[in-house]
C-alpha cells in the first residue's frame, strides 16, 4: 500500500526543483518559470514559490510574491475611509500563479493561493492588501471566487484587504484549502 505524498510549497531552488517539464497552457507563465523566475529571485524583484510532491522534484505549480503599492484613489471609498490618509498604500503583489496541466482538477491552484495569502499575512513588512493582475476573465473569476474584489477603474486588477485575509483564516481555524 502506498501513501500519496503531501504537496510541499517552498522557495524555488534551481538545484532541487525541476521546472523543465512545467506546462500550464500559458506560454508566458511556462517561460517565466523555466527561464526568468530564478533570475528574479537572485535580483530580489520577486520571490518564486513552487509546489512539489516529494520525492519528485517536478514543479506542479508556482506563484510569486513581491512588494507593490496601491493608490488610495483607486480603492473603493468605503475601504479608504477606514485607512490612514496616505495617497499611496503598501501592498503585496501576487504576481503569477499557475498549475501544471497535469495537476489540474486537484485544487492545487486554491492550495497555492491560500499558501500565498497565509504567507502574506505572516509577513514581516507592512501590507494592507494582496493584489493580483488577472491575465484574462478566467483568472479574474478564479480570484473573485476566493473573495478578491476588482478595483473600480482597473477591472483586471483585484485585491483582498489584509483584514479580510486575517478574518478568512481566523474564522476557518487556519483551514487548509
TrEMBL record:
<protein>
    <submittedName>
        <fullName>Acetyltransferase (GNAT) domain-containing protein</fullName>
    </submittedName>
</protein>
<keyword id="KW-0808">Transferase</keyword>
<feature type="domain" description="N-acetyltransferase">
    <location>
        <begin position="94"/>
        <end position="153"/>
    </location>
</feature>
<dbReference type="Pfam" id="PF13673">
    <property type="entry name" value="Acetyltransf_10"/>
</dbReference>
<dbReference type="InterPro" id="IPR016181">
    <property type="entry name" value="Acyl_CoA_acyltransferase"/>
</dbReference>
<keyword id="KW-1277">Toxin-antitoxin system</keyword>
<keyword id="KW-0678">Repressor</keyword>
<keyword id="KW-0012">Acyltransferase</keyword>
<dbReference type="InterPro" id="IPR000182">
    <property type="entry name" value="GNAT_dom"/>
</dbReference>
